[in-house]
């Protein structure tokens, strides 16, 4: 290799090393006033005095919601959410990314939807993505939770990069959508804002709409805290800054799936995944999305209509945890925390 080529390569390597060294994501929570603004709901949206948390309420008149002040082109976005208790059938609490306001006909979306239930029944969590208006090709998955989400806040997060989307619950990855060429425009790729809402999903949220919101139990309140907006804000005059930010997103721990994280994700999915479109052979007439379960490791755990053979609401959930919590409160010395998701045993 000529000395000039070696020198050029050295300069390139040093430049790349400098970029990596300088690039890092700030994962610190922001106040509501710094990162968000009200979307709808009027007095049903109640920030705390210091802006560290926000309460969203749903009553018979309106739900409520807020939206990030900036749109982002990839990043890590998180919120700790404490859900309403008692009879919450039909109630939907959502934390999601979307650009439907800018691209109404071909929008992108990445969703966490927390689905309420009848008294004594568990909340469900649903994840979904849309790209380029692909709403007729929903990619839903639905899960139970290994904890009672009404007792204390739990963290729900999305890591979105140009090549993958990761969904996290309390730091454990529960779903990975890897971008493959066959997805085409179905992978979200345009800048999106971050939203949080509570609303009436009576038409579909609880057992396909069988159970509606019972407003005798209103108002329903969801508390949001630890709001993290660690993404690449869209600004025409910040091209160099955006390139640096994209490197930071791609190399952040939240965006990299090491073997230990992948094993934790498999454990979660085997214990709590109720439904996945990836194994639903009927919904799209036998068509399976190209990004689904490439190694077939999950296939035997699911019926042909996408529901789990292993997990069911009757044998999973957090009902016992509520009783254990009461014992813990009454018994000094008992720990007041519960095991991390990856340490729970299969029933």
TrEMBL record:
GO cellular component, one term: apoplast
Enzyme active site: 109 (nucleophile), 113 (proton donor)
One function term, GO molecular function aspect: hydrolase activity, hydrolyzing O-glycosyl compounds
A UniProt-annotated Pfam family: Glyco_hydro_16
Key words of the record: Apoplast, Cell wall, Cell wall biogenesis/degradation, Disulfide bond, Glycosidase, Hydrolase, Secreted, Signal, Transferase
Domain of life: Eukaryota
Post-translational modification: Contains at least one intrachain disulfide bond essential for its enzymatic activity.
Any single GO BP term: cell wall organization
Protein name: Xyloglucan endotransglucosylase/hydrolase
Source organism of the structure: Miscanthus lutarioriparius
């Amino acid at each position: 290799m000529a000395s000039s080529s070696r020198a050029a390569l050295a300069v390139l390597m040093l430049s790349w090393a400098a970029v990596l060294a300088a690039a890092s994501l700030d994962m610190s929570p922001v106040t509501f006033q710094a990162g968000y603004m009200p979307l709808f709901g009027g007095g049903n949206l109640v920030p705390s005095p210091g802006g560290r948390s926000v309460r969203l309420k749903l009553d018979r008149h309106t739900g409520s919601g807020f939206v990030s002040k900036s749109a982002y082109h990839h990043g890590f976005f998180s919120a700790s959410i404490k859900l309403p208790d008692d009879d919450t059938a039909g109630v939907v609490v959502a934390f999601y990314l979307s650009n439907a306001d800018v691209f109404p006909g071909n929008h992108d979306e990445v969703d966490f939807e927390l689905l309420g239930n009848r008294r004594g029944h568990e909340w469900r969590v649903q994840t979904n993505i849309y790209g380029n208006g692909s709403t007729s090709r929903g990619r839903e998955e639905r899960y139970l939770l290994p904890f009672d989400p009404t007792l204390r806040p739990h963290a729900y997060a999305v890591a979105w990069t140009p090549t993958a989307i990761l969904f996290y619950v309390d730091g454990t990855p529960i779903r990975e959508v890897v971008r493959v060429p066959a997805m085409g425009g179905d992978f979200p790729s345009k800048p999106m804002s971050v939203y949080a809402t509570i609303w009436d999903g009576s038409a579909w949220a609880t057992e396909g709409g069988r159970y509606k919101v019972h407003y005798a139990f209103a108002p329903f309140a969801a508390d949001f805290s630890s709001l993290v907006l660690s993404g690449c804000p869209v600004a025409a005059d910040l091209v160099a800054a955006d390139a640096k930010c994209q490197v930071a997103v791609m190399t952040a721990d939240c965006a990299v799936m090491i073997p230990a994280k992948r094993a934790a994700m498999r454990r979660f999915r085997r214990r709590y995944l109720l439904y996945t479109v990836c194994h639903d052979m009927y919904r799209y007439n036998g068509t399976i999305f190209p990004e689904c379960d490439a190694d077939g490791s999950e296939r035997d755990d699911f019926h042909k209509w996408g529901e789990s053979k292993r997990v069911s609401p009757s044998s999973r959930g957090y009902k016992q945890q509520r009783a254990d919590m009461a014992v813990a409160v009454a018994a000094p010395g008992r720990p007041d925390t519960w095991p991390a998701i990856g340490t729970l045993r299969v029933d």
